[in-house]
Amino acid sequence: TLCPEDGLGTFPEIPSSPCSKALSRSSVRSRMALKPPKAYNSLQKGALLWDPKPLQVKKIFEALKKGLKEYLEAHQAELDYLSGRHKDTKRNSRLAGNHFLHPFLPLCPLEKQMRSVERYIRKLEFHISKVEELYEAYCIQCRLRDGATNMKQAFSLSPATKASRESLVELYKNVQECTEDMCFIEGALEVHLGEFHVKMKGLVGFARLCPGDQYEVFVRLGRQKWRLKGKIESDDSQTWDEEEKIFIPHLHEKFEIKVTELRGLATILVGVVTCDSVGFFSTKPQAIVVDITELGTIKLRLEVLW
């Protein structure tokens, strides 16, 4: 969720672009700022837990950039509207907005709102530029790794000599360094994905849902978990013990949703599904209807706000 009140303060700033130095074999990580280590458990030294996935990163980057630009366009339209109102106000008042001639006059509410939107637009532009810098550095490391991998394969097919063995060792080291740098950049990019506010909208089951039925819904995204219980009331309404949960998006993790029916001490599995989060990077709340059973006789309705 991106909020004008707090700007993008939840996203750490990144120093000047590493792209200009990415071709040197000094580590990209030494040129980027980090949050405290606890926020990067999977990125600590010696804890490389995944292989880079350039296609998935590209898909998330494009969705993220599109969503950020939607926010930017929406707030630019709001600023244009406020500017028009402000001009009308100045036209109808002798003193309104004339702060160069009257510097000690307090800002009117309309001007305060305009300045708030302007600050937010600048933060959005800064945020987009940093995301682009990260992805550009990621692409450079990806190309370097692909080149080193191709050369390693070529040397492995050549006659075994001392020079070729030394070259293979060096190329293997380069591949490992590029892989580590790509994983690090993936983690740095992940910090810029914002938050997903997921709201429970209830189950849809037509004749499958009866008054008195109780269900448990378990939603997981990576290590983040949300477990909630609900009951079908006599008037066919539904009550749930929780209505909203905040999830931090991941580059490589999908939402896993599991629904079980509670019958006394027994539980009956209704279904397990996965849901990709790429389509959630939007300024508008996304309504989701997930088929829990194979035939779609029971569906889960959620709403995701980024």
From TrEMBL:
<comment type="similarity">
    <text>Belongs to the RIPOR family.</text>
</comment>
<protein>
    <submittedName>
        <fullName>RIPR3 protein</fullName>
    </submittedName>
</protein>
<dbReference type="InterPro" id="IPR031780">
    <property type="entry name" value="FAM65_N"/>
</dbReference>
<dbReference type="Pfam" id="PF15903">
    <property type="entry name" value="PL48"/>
</dbReference>
<feature type="domain" description="FAM65 N-terminal">
    <location>
        <begin position="18"/>
        <end position="306"/>
    </location>
</feature>
<dbReference type="InterPro" id="IPR026136">
    <property type="entry name" value="RIPOR3"/>
</dbReference>
